[in-house]
Amino acid sequence: MRYRTVLVEAGLIGAAALDTFVHMWSDAPVSIALGVLGCVVLPLRHRFPRAVFALTLPAALLEAALVAPFVALYVLATRSRDRRVLGVCAVLFALASAAPSPFDDEAVKPSDTAVYLAYGLATAAVPVLLGQLVLTRRELSQRIEEIQEAKEHERVLHAQAMLARERAQLAREMHDVVSHQVSLIAVQAGALQVAGPDPATREAARTIRTLSVGTLDELRTMVTLLRASGPTEPTPQPTLADLQQLVAASGIEAKLTGVPALPVGTPGQRAIYRTVQEALTNVRKHAPGASAAVELWQDGPYAGVTVTNTPPGRPALPLPGAGQGLVGLHERACLLNGTLESGPTEDGGYRVHMSLPLN
Question: Which of 118, 236, 245, 302 has the most neighbouring CB atoms within 10 Å?
């Protein structure tokens, strides 16, 4: 890949140099210097597209060299959505290519200049349109990848919510049915232990009662675990310590503030992590160009996280989404006796607020 890049750069510089040499009107030092400058700065077009385009225009004005400004304008169009900037650059490209060179002694008719200007505008439209098509394709590919990641994430959240509901139902059945029946066995065994007709019967009743009490303790422990344990995943569970890495790798301008270590349990930490993950994913998908603020907070017996993003910097593409992410987060919060609120802000942004009890 590195050699391919070197060959492409060398080919573009060679084509620009050949174009400048072929269309050179005079041997004036300033003309030669500007032609060489327009070719030399081409490798910097990806880092400084506007500056490189500006440096290639003098060669087009003095010597009718079009390859260097054509390439620079194309790269600029792949990096910017500002139509005013692209329009101004296209007009400058057309004027530089149509204006008579000061080193050309031959007089040019105004009608010929108008024709050259029309051709120049048509030529300038080509790199602008090609660059915008490449930029649109790049953005679409990125959005499609984000949607696929979001769908997979929502599928996992839905599976986790279903598993949590099944666990809650199982815990209720064990508490309401099994524990009740074992409690009756323990009561009856206690009564038989007191009023048994012979020592052997009383000893057997005592053993049954002891086993029943132990079974009740184990059932209570299992019910507590089933109710407290959140959805499980095959991968290591994220915690609040992973939030900084999540925010840094979100692909948007985001900042993490607030209480660094909230006193919440492992299920609560997972819920907060997933809330931040889903909120930042929605910012990338629905608010391109926006920045986000992630705040961890604690207020009395409650703690949680608030994710707020600014209005989008550019229109979002109308791409489909499953729409189950916030639903899954709401279910996760309910399982922990918490709340989840989401909605637009007054300035056109969006806010997601999760609150969880500390006990």
Answer: 302
